[in-house]
Amino acid sequence: MRKNMLTTALLLALPTVSVAQDYSDIARFEVLPGWRTPAGDHISAVKITLAPGWMTYWRAPGEAGIPPQFSFSSDSAIASITPHWPVPHVFDDAGLRSIGYYDGVIFPFTVAAGGVIGDIPLTGELTIGVCEEICIPVTFAFDTVLPQVGAHDAAITDALADSPLTRSEANVGDVICAIEPISDGLRMTAQIDVAQLGASEFVVVEPSDPRIWVSQADVGREGATLSATVEMVHPSGQPFAFDRSGVRITVLGGDGQAIDLQGCTAD
């Protein structure tokens, strides 16, 4: 049977694990099998346990870091895998701002497998960065099965509850993006109508095209309006057409707070 092949830059892992070098003293991976939904999708998670003081990165790692890379194949008719990212931390990494998780994290994910009967076999590779004073890229190969019969897991449920708030949950008003050309790309300023999210606020901008480099946001606030300005550079080194509807803006505040915003409008 021809295998269904998918590749994503989002962190997912379903080990039995084999590695070219043993990093078990730094990072350990465990699959939490999870459960099948009435619609036929499968909810599972990866538990990453790191040695004390070590960290790994969020999907957008910041100025310094290794973004997760994952690929998988299956004989089952899986359409996609959607990760659910718990709220990360912003920290200083050798003088640079990085975004990730210390000591460990649980990443829930949803396998779109409606119509699949029985267990779901998965194989593939996962590469993440684990860092303390140095950063090490670690690649794991996995070959595992998600069982047809499963059970709800409190650890997965808690991790899902730790997701950023949606626009409606955070009572966000207008999200307006002003675009202007610069010599090698574009400058975007987002104006977000939202109440202050803690004593400090950090904004991450992710264009729909992953090839586009994005600077760290210059963040400011005037009353109920949060502003974030970034510069974006396309591989062409020229100004480019920007898809406002596809941009993803994450507002990170103190005390584990975050808001996930999809798309913005013209000013």
What is the percentage of strand-forming residues?
A: over 45%
CATH topology of the largest domain: Immunoglobulin-like
What is the approximate shape? Answer: globular
Write down how many β-strands occur, each being a DSSP E stretch of 2 or more residues.
Answer: 21
Work out the helicity level.
under 10%
> What's the end-to-end separation, in Å?
51 Å
Compute the CA-based radius of gyration.
19 Å
Secondary-structure element order, as H and E? EEEEEEEEEEEEHEEEEEEEEE
CATH hierarchy, class of the largest domain: Mainly Beta
CATH architecture of the largest domain: Sandwich
Count of alpha/pi helices: 1
Mean model confidence by pLDDT: 86
For the structure shown, list the relevant keywords.
267 residues; mainly beta; 2 domains; eight-stranded antiparallel beta sheet; six-stranded mixed beta sheet; 1 helix; 21 strands
Q: What do these coordinates show?
A:
The protein folds into 2 domains: 4-161, Immunoglobulin-like (Sandwich), CATH 2.60.40.1250; 175-266, Immunoglobulin-like, CATH 2.60.40. The protein has 267 residues and is mainly beta. The relative contact order is 0.17. It is built from 1 helix and 21 strands. It is globular and about 50 Å long. The chain has one helix at residues 154-161, and strands at residues 4-8, 17-18, 27-36, 42-50, 55-62, 69-74, 80-83, 89-93, 96-102, 104-112, 120-131, 135-146, 175-182, 185-193, 201-206, 213-214, 218-222, 225-233, 248-253, 258-262, 265-266. The longest helix has 8 residues, at 154-161. Helices cover 3% and strands 53% of the residues.
Secondary-structure map:
Blueprint: E1 4-8, E2 17-18, E3 27-36, E4 42-50, E5 55-62, E6 69-74, E7 80-83, E8 89-93, E9 96-102, E10 104-112, E11 120-131, E12 135-146, H1 154-161, E13 175-182, E14 185-193, E15 201-206, E16 213-214, E17 218-222, E18 225-233, E19 248-253, E20 258-262, E21 265-266
